[in-house]
């Protein structure tokens, strides 16, 4: 039986590299937006999954990739996802199946129809090869990831879960770009409130404003948790110790007064100048009745903010107030980031 399991060329562009070793070139399908999935090879990294748009970022040959979440640095090929590896193996196995059938046909000289009749005197034997259909190879199943950001340093267009920190191509800190991108989405929603008021009514517009405020608080909380996690990790604590500490933090970063205390106790920041903490506190306080009481002011809220407004009335919030809150959130996260990480890795 001839050693021709793999023929050179073909859809996999197979080439022999010596002996019984072959190279196959497999193109990984892109998603509908032209991005390709990547997965951090560091087993302890979570979520570890992201996407990049090929053709953006570092020009020329790129030999290494950075994980946007943990900054693990490795050869770019090491970042292939498990689904991509499965897809490549399935394609090679299907090609091997095709090669086995071909080798059997060639060995028994079965011809194009896989049949041959052997006659020796009174003995007649028919050889018939019935091959099962080649298996279908499903393309890689990839997750939908919808937080896009372009690195200001190298131009890589990348998509991540949550608020990632590092550029996958150049490895630079782009955390603030992710925060800015999230705030921009909320600003876009805010700018659409007037149109939706005319189209759907005042109550829908009011809910839109409330949702924008809740999103502002959520972005602030997520950003400060991410910065705290990173700072604690860099201080030498184990992953378990860091997560235990963050579990104790709970919802602290939804409250501005508690936030200032937590920054002092957790990461050693006594003061963050240039931040409108009072304005942030006033806006954040409005979130509680919105989230837990359908926007109706209760006694607890009125006592906390020392307001003379009447209990049972709906809280008042305006688009300009939320726009200012978004600006203040961005300023606060930027200032805290600058204090915690004044010098960044190259």
Largest sheet: 4 strands, antiparallel
Widest beta sheet: strand line-up: 3-4-10-9
Write down the secondary-structure element order. EEEEEEHEEEEHHHHHHHH
Spatial extent as radius of gyration: 30 Å
Percent of residues in helices:
40-55%
Task: Characterize the structure shown.
Helices cover 44% and strands 12% of the residues. It is of the alpha+beta class and 346 residues long. Among the domains are: 83-128, no CATH class; 176-340. The strands form 4 sheets. A 4-stranded antiparallel β-sheet has the order 3-4-10-9. The protein is elongated, with a radius of gyration of 30 Å. The two termini are 56 Å apart.
Give a concise summary.
The chain is of the alpha+beta class.
Task: Tag the structure with descriptive keywords.
346 residues, alpha+beta, 4-stranded antiparallel sheet, 9 helices
Q: Which SSEs are present, and which pair or pack?
A:
Blueprint: E1 15-18, E2 21-23, E3 35-39, E4 49-53, E5 64-66, E6 73-75, H1 82-108, E7 115-120, E8 123-128, E9 147-150, E10 157-160, H2 175-191, H3 193-200, H4 202-234, H5 239-249, H6 256-266, H7 277-292, H8 299-305, H9 319-340
Antiparallel strand pairs: 1-2, 3-4, 4-10, 5-6, 7-8, 9-10
């Amino acid at each position: 039986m001839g050693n021709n399991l793999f023929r050179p060329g073909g859809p996999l562009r197979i080439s022999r590299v010596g002996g019984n070793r072959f190279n196959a070139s497999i193109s990984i399908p892109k998603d509908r937006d032209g991005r390709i999935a990547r997965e951090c090879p560091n087993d302890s990294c979570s979520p570890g999954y992201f996407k990049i748009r090929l053709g953006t970022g570092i020009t020329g040959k790129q030999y290494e990739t950075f994980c946007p979440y943990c900054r693990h640095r490795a050869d770019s090929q090491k970042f292939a996802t498990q689904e991509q590896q499965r897809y490549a193996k399935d394609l090679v196995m299907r090609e091997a199946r095709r090669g086995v059938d071909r080798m059997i046909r060639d060995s028994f000289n079965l011809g194009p129809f896989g049949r041959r009749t052997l006659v020796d005197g009174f003995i007649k034997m028919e050889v018939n090869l019935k091959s099962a259909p080649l298996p279908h190879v499903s393309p890689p199943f990839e997750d939908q990831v919808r937080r896009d950001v372009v690195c200001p340093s190298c131009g890589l267009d990348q998509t991540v879960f949550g608020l990632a920190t590092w550029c996958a191509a150049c490895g630079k800190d782009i955390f603030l770009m992710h925060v800015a991108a999230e705030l921009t989405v909320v600003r876009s929603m805010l700018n659409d409130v007037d149109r939706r008021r005319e189209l759907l009514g005042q109550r829908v517009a009011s809910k839109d404003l409330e949702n924008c405020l809740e999103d502002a608080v959520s972005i602030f909380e997520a950003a400060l948790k991410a910065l705290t996690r990173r700072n604690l990790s860099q201080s030498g604590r184990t992953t378990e110790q860091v997560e235990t500490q963050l579990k104790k933090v709970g919802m602290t970063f939804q409250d501005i007064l508690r936030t200032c205390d937590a920054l002092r106790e957790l990461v050693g920041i006594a003061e963050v100048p240039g931040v409108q903490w009072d304005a942030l506190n006033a806006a954040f306080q409005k979130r509680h009745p919105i989230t837990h009481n359908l926007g109706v002011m209760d006694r607890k809220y009125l006592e906390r903010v020392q307001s003379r407004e009447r209990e049972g009335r709906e809280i008042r919030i305006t688009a300009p107030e939320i726009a200012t809150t978004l600006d203040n959130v961005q300023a606060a996260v930027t200032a805290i980031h600058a204090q915690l990480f004044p010098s960044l890795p190259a």
